Give the backbone structure.
Amino acid sequence: QLQLQESGPGLVKPSETLSLTCTVSGGSISSSSYYWGWIRQPPGKGLEWIGSIYYSGSTYYNPSLKSRVTISVDTSKNQFSLKLSSVTAADTAVYYCARTMIDWGQGTMVTVSS
Amino acid sequence: QSVLTQPPSASGTPGQRVTISCSGSSSNIGSNTVNWYQQLPGTAPKLLIYSNNQRPSGVPDRFSGSKSGTSASLAISGLQSEDEADYYCAAWDDSHWVFGGGTKLTVL
């Protein structure tokens, strides 16, 4: 049974970098059959795709966030990560990790505030 | 403003059939398949329909999807109280995913 679990600080200061990790269990992150991504949801609002990373290392990012986003994979730990720089209050959201937009983690709330 | 357009709300009574629309363009729905997600209150989204009309294992056949041109629809037949949730459509659009704004379904 595949499980994805997000982890990271729940509070980030404005202008700093938000860093989250998604730990994958019940499946290998090295599989060429899947890609891994991040989606977020501001409180009371809809879903916004952040980006994805493929087995090959290729990355695709939301054009509106591309200048601030980095997604990477650590195959030794079966994890992938999200870094979002220069955050503002507008980046406050529940952040979800997902496999191939099919299987999702439970989400983690990140608040940007001083 | 979302790239894909959904009605903000929909409603129906138990047993009814309701339909939720999702309108896009040639770069997303017009040239790629559509996923639908169900988000129950306080939970993560769950894949309901993929590739326009395919149901993952475990999703009841009361849920069905269709696509025509640059629009897609989700239909729920035999509406049940537990179907009350937010529903989102999503599609690939020129190297990135886009979502609809979501439709809040109320079971009256």
The two ends of chain A are 39 Å apart (CA to CA). Chain A has a mean pLDDT of 95.
